[in-house]
């Protein structure tokens, strides 16, 4: 069995040394469990299934399970560790499918599974991981199975709706926000819910953390949208305007398209055109960076982060609450 690398640092901003030490220790346990859970009965399946696990990642979802578990009397419960594995394996399975949909060649700095093998192997490996996460969920009880099924339904529906243009009577921005909530927010909400539930936290806390997770998870994706336009590659490691070049609708683009200002005619013309051309792409990127839609998008994300923090009022003042509040702020103001 080959173990996967533990993240060098916690993906959440935890300043309390005792809390950070506990989370580091439990994340090491989760890593060891993950390495075993992705093993199949044959070497070929095991190699494909561990491919993205070994490529690393921030492990944000299982870490959120562990942090949310600190709100209950039994944060060290075995069920908490199992739940952390469930959400990460579900996430990993979705990445295999994402890479096929996006025709991606790289994932986390390594060859994507579809590039290393082919689309069929990538799709079936994602299915294998979804099945394995379902097996683990079954050990957590019938209610956990229901929660996981509902989460998976939302996640897949979000992935499907991402490929569909909104209808003529639909609001394009709301369509996109629904996609983000399903594809990204739903699993992060379940991560927080699982941590609270399996540590024995009160139901009021569980519901508040689930709502917090959905908002912060969605806001994280929306921050990515802003960075795609605003960042310089030397600052963020991203290629500026990648989504713009590929014609992917994102929060700033959708907000700019809603403009009725005649001065925006050239930008709207460019956004409706093929931006694989370097000159048009550069012009569109420059106009979008200067457009009020950028500040509008930032304000929207900040407001969502404030909404998420308000939900944490059910928690007493503690390092756990501070870490959750800090993460919401980080999402709203991140530059990388």
TrEMBL record:
Keywords: Magnesium, Metal-binding, Transferase. Its cofactor is Mg(2+). CDD domains: Trans_IPPS_HT. Belongs to the FPP/GGPP synthase family. PANTHER family: ALL TRANS-POLYPRENYL-DIPHOSPHATE SYNTHASE PDSS1, GERANYLGERANYL PYROPHOSPHATE SYNTHASE. This is Polyprenyl synthetase family protein. The lineage of its organism: Bacteria, Bacillati, Actinomycetota, Actinomycetes, Propionibacteriales.
């Amino acid at each position: 069995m080959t173990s996967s690398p533990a993240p060098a640092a916690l993906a959440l901003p935890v300043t309390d040394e005792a809390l950070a030490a506990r989370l580091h220790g439990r994340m090491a346990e989760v890593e060891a469990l993950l390495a075993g859970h992705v093993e199949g009965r044959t070497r070929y399946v095991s190699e494909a299934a561990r491919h993205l696990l070994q490529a690393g990642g921030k492990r944000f979802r299982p870490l959120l399970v562990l942090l949310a578990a600190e709100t209950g009397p039994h944060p060290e419960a075995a069920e908490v560790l199992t739940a952390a594995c469930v959400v990460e394996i579900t996430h990993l399975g979705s990445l295999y499918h994402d890479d096929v949909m996006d025709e991606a060649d790289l994932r986390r700095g390594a060859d994507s599974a579809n590039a290393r093998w082919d689309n069929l192997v990538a799709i079936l490996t994602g299915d294998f991981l979804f099945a394995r996460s379902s097996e683990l969920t079954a050990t957590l009880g019938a209610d956990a199975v229901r929660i996981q099924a509902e989460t998976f339904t939302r996640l897949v529906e979000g992935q499907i709706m991402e490929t569909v243009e909104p209808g003529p009577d639909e609001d394009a921005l709301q369509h996109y926000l629904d996609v983000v909530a399903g594809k990204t927010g739903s699993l992060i909400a379940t991560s927080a819910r699982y941590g609270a539930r399996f540590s024995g936290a009160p139901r009021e806390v569980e519901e508040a953390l689930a709502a917090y997770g959905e908002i912060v998870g969605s806001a994280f994706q929306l921050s990515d949208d802003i960075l795609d336009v605003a960042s310089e590659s030397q600052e963020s490691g991203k290629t500026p305007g990648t989504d713009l070049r590929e014609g992917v609708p994102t929060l700033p683009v959708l907000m700019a398209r809603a403009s009725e200002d005649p001065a925006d005619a050239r930008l709207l013309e460019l956004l409706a055109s093929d931006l694989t051309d370097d000159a048009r792409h550069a012009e569109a990127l420059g106009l979008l960076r200067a457009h009020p839609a950028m500040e509008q998008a930032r304000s929207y994300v900040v407001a969502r982060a404030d909404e998420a923090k308000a939900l944490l009022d059910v928690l007493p003042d503690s390092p756990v609450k501070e870490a959750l509040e800090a993460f919401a702020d980080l999402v709203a103001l991140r530059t990388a």
